[in-house]
Design goal:
By secondary structure, this protein is mostly beta strands. The chain has one domain. Helix content is about 0%, strand content about 30%. The chain contains no helices and seven strands. It has a three-stranded antiparallel β-sheet with strand order 3-4-7, with no helix packed on it. Strands 1-2 form a two-stranded antiparallel sheet. Strands 5-6 form a two-stranded antiparallel ribbon. A hairpin with a 2-residue loop joins β3 and β4. The radius of gyration is 26 Å and the shape is elongated. The N terminus is likely disordered.
């Protein structure tokens, strides 16, 4: 989380993350007031860090973003054709591949600039939607 040169704010109170609520786009749950969970230690007397401040007490990698889930599956069917002596002359392989077969929507990371507009808001998705591809291969 950044704030114009500072790297870590102080945590004022623990947020209720969006993974347990119906409105998931607001990661911290207070909309425009999301920054109230944090205070920026700038303008501190005797501060030596950026903006005459200090590093905050919030540890690195304290929060995790929304979960990411995708399920892929592939179906393959080999069919032999023709005869050459005792063996087959060739094989036709049909393949169907399904990416993100359950079409799960994965949210991107929330905005992480504490003093910026939209802090804690998720404005994009991560990964792709369901994709299906078919292929046919002839080996002889």
């Amino acid at each position: 989380m950044g704030a114009g040169g500072t790297d870590r704010p102080d945590l004022e109170s623990m947020p209720d993350f969006s993974t347990g609520r119906t409105i998931r786009e607001d990661y911290f749950g207070r909309g425009a007031d999301n920054a109230s969970f944090f205070s920026i230690p700038i303008g501190v007397p005797g501060g030596t860090g950026p903006n005459e401040g200090r590093f905050g007490t919030l540890g690195r990698d304290t929060f995790r973003g929304p979960g990411f889930h995708q399920f892929h599956i592939a179906l393959i069917k080999n069919t032999s054709f023709g005869r050459r002596g005792r063996g087959e002359w060739g094989i036709v392989q049909f393949r169907a591949e399904f990416f993100n077969i359950l079409n799960i929507v994965n949210f991107g990371l929330p905005s992480n600039t504490v003093l910026g507009s939209g802090f804690g808001m998720i404005s994009r998705t991560a990964g792709s939607s369901r994709q299906i591809q078919f292929s046919l291969k002839v080996a002889f």
